[in-house]
Write a structure and sequence with these properties.
The protein is built from 9 helices and 14 strands. By secondary structure, it is an alpha/beta fold. The strands form 5 sheets. A 5-stranded mixed sheet has the order 4-3-5-14-6, covered by helices on one side. The chain has a 3-stranded antiparallel sheet with strand order 12-7-13. Strands 1-2 form a two-stranded antiparallel ribbon.
């Protein structure tokens, strides 16, 4: 038995929650991973995993072995990494997850510079507004807005986005331009951004001179993807509250108009997040350093445009 390979197989099964996902993340056949775990259990003389047709459960002994062997794997990766970083260029596969409009308007326009600097790194970009499980989905890092509450994750602040309220000129011609947030309750049509995780609409938020207002009105249309959310506004379906960088192009060409500009809420923080327990590879380290430098100015973009 290759004990180190067996330990790697066991830890990936525990982290992903299944033999199938563990095998996929290691690019190995399921039968091979299953055989390695059985051999490891036979070597140790204990049951690490309880398997049924419907469920995989880690035994108490399995939890203990995972914690101890995980530390050993990370130490080995640190040793290997210290030599690799000193004598080689970063290379390999980097899996990044990012929201729709952030991918389109911020990260992807910046990526040619990163790829030119590090041609030996291959990127798989997962684009979705739904939260992912970094461990079970085998993702190296995610870029997301808002607070990250999990203690098992490490976050690095990337910058802050401007939140604006806007509508199409056609909509404003038909329904009028609100002068105060409370006017949104009186006959206006709202296009709400609906959280993919909770299924609940995000309320419209406003702030001026320390006064904060939150508008919770039944929306006419709800959308759970950021690019489609903005497209609904351009189509004249109603008023949206969105990130300035996402609306920048539409504001410049006049297909959207910012309203209630004096009531912009506080800027919205963006972060890069990665698992605390996972070794930071050379390729992830250089990506983090690059994105921390390149991201803040781009995410903070909001061009001066026609306002009402």
């Amino acid at each position: 038995m290759d004990q180190l390979l067996a330990i790697r197989a066991f830890t990936r099964v525990v982290e992903t929650g299944s033999f199938t996902r563990g095998a996929d993340s290691l690019n190995m056949p399921i039968a091979t991973v299953s055989k390695l775990v059985r051999e490891l259990e036979a070597h140790l003389g204990v049951r690490l995993l309880q398997r049924t047709t419907r469920r995989l459960t880690v035994t108490p002994e399995g939890h203990e072995y995972y914690a101890k062997s995980g530390r050993v794997l990370r130490e080995l990766e640190d040793i290997d990494g210290s030599f690799n970083m000193a004598r080689s260029k970063p290379r390999g596969h980097l899996r990044i997850d990012v929201g729709g409009s952030t991918a389109r308007d911020v990260l992807i326009p910046l990526l040619p510079d990163f790829m030119a600097r590090y041609p030996d790194i291959r990127i798989d970009l997962g684009v979705s507004d739904r939260s992912v499980d970094l461990i079970s989905d085998n993702v190296d890092c995610v870029i997301r807005g808002g607070a990250m509450e999990s203690s098992s994750l490490v976050s690095r602040r990337l910058g802050e986005a401007v939140l604006i309220t806007c509508a199409s000129p056609g909509y404003l011609k038909q329904f009028g331009t609100p002068a105060y947030p409370d006017e949104l309750k009186n006959g206006h049509r709202l296009v709400s951004y609906v959280s993919s995780d909770t299924g609940r609409p995000i309320p419209f938020r406003f702030e001026r001179d320390g006064e904060k207002t939150e508008i919770k009105v039944e929306h006419r249309v709800g959308v759970n993807e950021s690019n489609a959310h903005l497209a609904a506004c351009v189509a004249g379906l109603g008023i949206v509250q969105t990130f300035g960088y996402a609306a920048a192009g539409a504001l410049r060409d006049g297909s959207l108009v910012e309203i209630l500009a004096g009531w912009r809420p506080a800027r919205y923080p963006f972060q890069l997040v990665y698992p605390q327990a996972r070794h930071v590879t050379h390729r992830l380290r250089v990506f983090m350093e690059w994105v921390l430098e390149a991201f803040p100015e781009r995410v903070g973009e909001c061009p001066e445009s026609q306002r009402r």
